[in-house]
Design brief:
With about 290 residues, the chain is α+β, with helices and mostly antiparallel strands. It folds into two domains: about 1-120, Gcn5-related N-acetyltransferase (GNAT) (Aminopeptidase, 3-Layer(aba) Sandwich), CATH 3.40.630; about 130-285, Aminopeptidase. The protein contains eight helices and twelve strands. It has helices at about 10-25, 35-40, 80-95, 110-120, 155-170, 180-190, 235-245, 265-270, and strands at about 1-5, 50-55, 60-65, 70-75, 100-105, 120-135, 145-150, 200-205, 205-215, 220-225, 250-260, 275-285. The strands form two sheets. An eight-stranded mixed beta sheet has the order 5-12-6-11-10-9-8-7, with helices on both faces. A four-stranded antiparallel beta sheet has the order 1-2-3-4, with helices on both faces. The longest helix is centred in the N-terminal third of the chain and has 17 residues, at about 80-95. It is elongated, with a radius of gyration of 20 Å. About 35% of the residues are buried.
């Protein structure tokens, strides 16, 4: 086996490898080559330096990468290969000035768990994956007085990114913001991006809230400006998504929320009909 820099002609095999790994851990693949491509195309991602592959008999059997948001990707057919890949990608992260590296594991049976623990990763947080079944009689959102909602336009991107940074960074010291260029490319270049399910809330023309969904029926991000909280805006934004996806014939909407989120998000989702499906742990290594 040989560890080498990743190349563009590895794309399909890397996507297949990551999909198989996720299927083993969760029962659902959920990763495609186009998602890998989106990361590789980010302006801040250094192809062949931030990602490595393991090749055996002309086939990719291992992969590791560090993203601009300090995220770790890791997949390998055996522990010895995973150990070597992880050692090399951790060194790459140090060279890039990354102060911590994170990876999410979907279950206790995830085969990467033992590997990352051997390398000093510790459980940092837990996220709750929730789903809401959609019915034909969902109530229309109740928007706070003076707030108007509309869908996303390309010129909104930087303002939306800043709102998310302010909201997440305000309570989570682990939050790792991306550059505007990387964030815009990552989000609007996703295969499930659809501006008609990205809702923005404005007061007097100023952005005060947003709910960004993938067109598969997944609430990717939601944020409400601090001055607008506890007035029903978050509930209205989530409800807008439920109603719209119900109209589109979706059976349910999903999301993931930090179990320690202090904003009351978990209780809000439960009031709107979301129920817990599973939990995922985020493991971190300080560099």
């Amino acid at each position: 086996m040989a560890i080498r820099p990743a190349r563009w002609d590895d794309l399909e095999q890397v996507g297949t490898l990551l999909a198989a790994q996720r299927r083993q851990a969760t029962g659902v693949a959920g990763i495609e080559a186009e998602l890998v491509r989106a990361e590789w195309e980010l302006p801040g991602f250094q192809m062949g330096e931030d990602n490595l592959v393991v090749e055996h008999a002309g086939k990719v059997v291992g992969y590791a990468a560090v993203s601009s948001a300090r995220g770790l990707s890791l997949a390998a057919h055996d522990d010895a290969t995973a150990d070597e890949l992880l050692s090399r990608i951790v060194e790459r992260a140090r060279l890039c000035g990354v102060n911590s590296l994170r990876i999410a594991l979907s279950s206790d049976s995830d085969p990467r768990g033992a590997v990352i623990r051997r390398h000093g990763f510790e459980l940092e947080s837990e996220a709750i994956v929730m789903r809401c079944r959609l019915t034909s009689d969902l109530p229309e959102p109740d928007w706070p007085a003076g707030v108007r909602a509309r869908t996303f336009r390309a010129g909104d991107a930087v303002a939306v990114h800043r709102l998310l940074d302010d909201a997440y960074g305000g309570w989570d010291p682990r939050y790792a913001p991306m550059t505007d260029d990387d964030w815009v490319r990552w989000m609007t270049g996703d295969i499930e991006f659809d501006p008609t399910v990205w809702w923005l809330a404005e007061r007097d023309g100023a952005l005060v809230g947003c709910a960004l969904h993938w067109n598969s029926g997944w609430l990717k991000d939601i944020a409400v400006r601090e001055t607008e909280r506890r007035q029903g805006l978050g509930a209205a934004l989530v409800s807008q998504g439920l109603v719209e996806f119900g109209r589109r014939g979706m059976g349910r909407v999903g999301l993931k929320v930090d179990a320690a989120n202090p904003t009351g998000a978990v209780a809000l989702y439960e009031r709107l009909g979301f129920v817990e499906e599973r939990r995922e742990g985020t493991w971190a290594l300080s560099l």
